[in-house]
Request: fold
Amino acid sequence: MTVKRFTYTVTGGEVTVFQSALYRTNAAVVETEDVMLIVDPTWLPHEIEDIKRHVQARRGERKLLLLVTHSDFDHLIGCGAFPDAAAIGSSPLAVETDKQAKLAQIQAFDAQYYIDRDDPIVYPDIRHAITEDGERLLFGSTVLTFYMAPGHTKCGLFTVVEPAGIWLAGDYLSDFELPLIEHSAAAYENTLLKAFSIVEAHKARLLVPGHGAPTEEPKEMHRRIAMAQSHIDRLRQAVRERDEAALGALGAAHAYPSPFMEEAHELNVRLIREEEEGDGESLAHQVQERS
Reply:
């Protein structure tokens, strides 16, 4: 079975994106002169095996790194396939208190679909835990610059590979997927503000989202940021005005209608309603003031 893949060459690096048949989820392998960086290897065994073969064929003597953009179980599934890679993640991901629950989700998925794996199911042992915006790791001439990206989850992380200008965004800035807020709408909005600055400050040449199509166009990066912010703005307005028709239309705007997407939309609405009904000013303002 052939795995869909896309290859991008930018000055100072090459990126191979492996797109799963499930949820159009992207795993990626970033190659620079100094490192080979594996990003969120996932879903099905033959898909992960294809990533392994690619890494084994091309690694050479380069340092092997594993970036985990956040702790949703679909982004953890393939971590056990690369035991010799030094794992990178946010500090909230590293200190996750319920790691067994994440692994149980993987096991439940495999049981539901009768999937057997040769590689162990493990929660990644984070060697490089990122704690703040602008933190950097240097490997020869390759620089990894990080930004905390909560909102979708508490533990999200943006990573920019420099000087190549490769932006690894996790579950943000898809070309088709509207915001899925599992942690905080206010934090999500703050992360979108960081996204605007990343496009300009790092002169991003390639954006790789967790789901959907990568893009090399800054205008498209801006469009995706604006699309996400607009959706949250309209959700907030509909919640404030108790406009059920508008909320229904916003739920219908999600691609690939399904019970899963209905639940995701309901969670978006509930989290925003909790923020709007909180004591004093909304949590959105509180988060922005703390940032």
